[in-house]
Amino acid sequence: MLEPNSRRTYLSELRPPEGYALDRAVATTFSLDLLSLLMAPLSMVLFESPDKEEALKDPTAVLEALRRVSGKFAIFCQQGRIAVPKNDNVLFRCLEKTVVEVKPKDPRGVFHAKTWLMRFVANGVPAVYRFLCLSKNLTFDRSWDTVLTLEGELKDRKVAFASNNPLGDFFEALPELAASKVSEEVKNNVALVANEVRRAEFEWPEEFDGYEFLPLGNLGKKKKLDWGRPSRTLIVSPFLDKEPTHRLAESGTNNVLVSRQESFDELPDELIKAIEQNSQLYVMDTAAEVPEEMGEEETSETSGLTDFSGLHAKLVIFEEGWDAAVLSGSANATRAAWSGENVEFVTRLVGKKSRVGIDSFLGKDDQQHSFHSLLRPYKRVEMPKDASLSKKLEEMLDGARRAVSSAGMRARITQDSESGYTINLTSSGPFSFGADSVSGVCFPISLRASSGHDVAPLLKGDALLFPNLSSIGLSSFFAFQIEARLEGEKAAIAFVLNLPVEGMPADREKHILTSIVSDKSRFVRYLLFLLSEGFDGREPGWVPEPPLKEEGDPGLEHLFSGFQPLEEMIRAYSRHPERLDCITRLVEDLKQSEEGRLVLPEGFDQIWEAFAAVRKGKEEVKR
Hints:
29% of the residues lie in helices and 23% in strands. It is α+β, with helices and mostly antiparallel strands. Helix 4 packs antiparallel against helix 5 (184-196).
C-alpha cells in the first residue's frame, strides 16, 4: 500500500493518459500557492514539468500552457488562504479568472477539501475522468501526504452509477460557496464535469474490493464521519483534538495513533494517559521529516504558508472482523473535520484486513522501506510557558484575517492617462480587527510590500488608492500583511484575496503577451517551442535540425531564406499540421496591438501567408 521511498510528485498526477488531452479540470484546496498553480498547466497540457526555477527563466512554456487551459480550468480555495508570492510574476494575472475563493456555510468551519476532477478526451473514444483525493494542498510543501487516484471511462448510459452521486453532488455545489460572483464559464465547466462524472466507471486499486465517496460538511449528505465499532483503529493525522481522539481510549485494542510532537503535547495529560492504555503513540522520526534534497532556503521561499515538511497525511484504518476500511483524504482527527463544521472530502476503500489492514500498512520495523521504520514512540514534552500567549496571538490574527475576508472589498480601476491607471480599493463599510494592537498593510501583488498602504482607512470605510499603474501592473490579487502585538510579543500573517474588479482594461491580456514575447528573438523562440513536441528542456540558442524531405512535400523552402524556424515550419506542415494552428492563434493575438506587430520578424507575414495559402489548398483537395 505504501512505499515511503517511492514518493510521487503532485504535478505528475495531472498528466493526461497516453493519447489523451485535457478538456476540463476542477480542483479544490484549502491553501494555495500561486506559483504552484502556475506550474500545474505544464503537467496538464504539455506533459513535461521542469522545476520552477528553470521554467521561469524562460516562461514560454508556462505562457503557452496557460493559453491552452484558458477557459477549461478552475480551482476553489478557502478565502484568505492564498499565499503572498515572494516575487511578482506577470503570469499571475492569467490565474485571476481561474481562482475562486469560497467559504463554508457554517461560520465555524473552513473549506478544507483537497481534490481534482479532470476530463480527458481523444478522437473516436469516450472521455476519461480522473479523480484525485488528497491530503495535500496546492503548494510546494514537501511534507508526507497521501493521494488516491481513480480513473475511469465515461459510459454511454442515462442512469448514473449510484456510488458516484456523492462525488457529482460535491462538485455541483461548489459555486454556491463562492465568496463573490462566479463567471458563467466556470459554472458551465463545473456543471459539465459534475454531471458526467456520475456516469464514469472508475477502476479501484486491485488490493481493495470497493470504494465510497464521503464529502463531509455542508456539501455532503452524511456530513459527519462515522466511527462505527471497530476492533482496532489506526489514525494518522498531523493535528488532533480531544474529540475525536478520545474515542481511541473507548474502543478496540492495540490501536495506533501517529501525529506531530506538538499536537500530542497540546492534548491534556489525562487524555494521553487514557489513550496509552490501549494504543501506541508515534511521531515521525526527525530524519524522515525533511527530504534530503530540500534545504533551508527552499523552506522559506513562500510567504504565508507553513508545514513545508514533516507529517501532513490524513489516514484512518478501521478493522472489524476479517475486513478493513481505509479512509483517505483531507480530514484531520479534529472536531471541526469529523463533526461536519469543515467542508472535507474523504474516500473510503474497503478490503480484507490481511491485504489492507493496519499491519499491512505499517509493515515491520526491520522491513526495508516500511512506514513503521519512519516512526518513533511519542515522549511527552512540557509545553513552553509562552505557548498560551502564542495561541492568543494566533487567534487574534485569525480573527483579523476573517474580518478582512468578510469586509466585502472591491476594486475599481480608472484610467488617468494613455498608459496610467489607478486602483480604488473599498470595503462594504467600516469593520474592526477586534483589538487596537492589530494593524496591517495592503497592496496589489504587482507592487512590493514597501509600497503597501496602511489598512486603517478601510477599517473606517474609506478607500485606498494605488495610482500610476501600467495595464500589466493591474491585478485582482491583493496582498494583506497583518501584525498583532500582545504583552511585548508579536506575530504576523500574510495572505492574498482575489477581489471583484470593475474597469479592468480589455486589452490587458494582449499587453501581458507582449511583455513576454517582447522582441523578435523571443518570438522566434516561442515559434520554435510551438513547432517542437512540447517543452523538452532545450537550451536557449537551440537550432533545429535540417528537415527530412518527404514525398508530396510542396517544397516551400525555395520561397524563403534566412529565417531560422523555416525548416521546422516545413516539417510541421508535412507531419504535424495541427501545430500551425497554435502559431495562427499566437500571430493573430500579437497583431491586435502595435507592440505585438513590432515583434514579428521582417518578412514573416509573407512567409505565413504562403503557408496559410498552401495549407488551405491542401485542405480543399482533401475535401
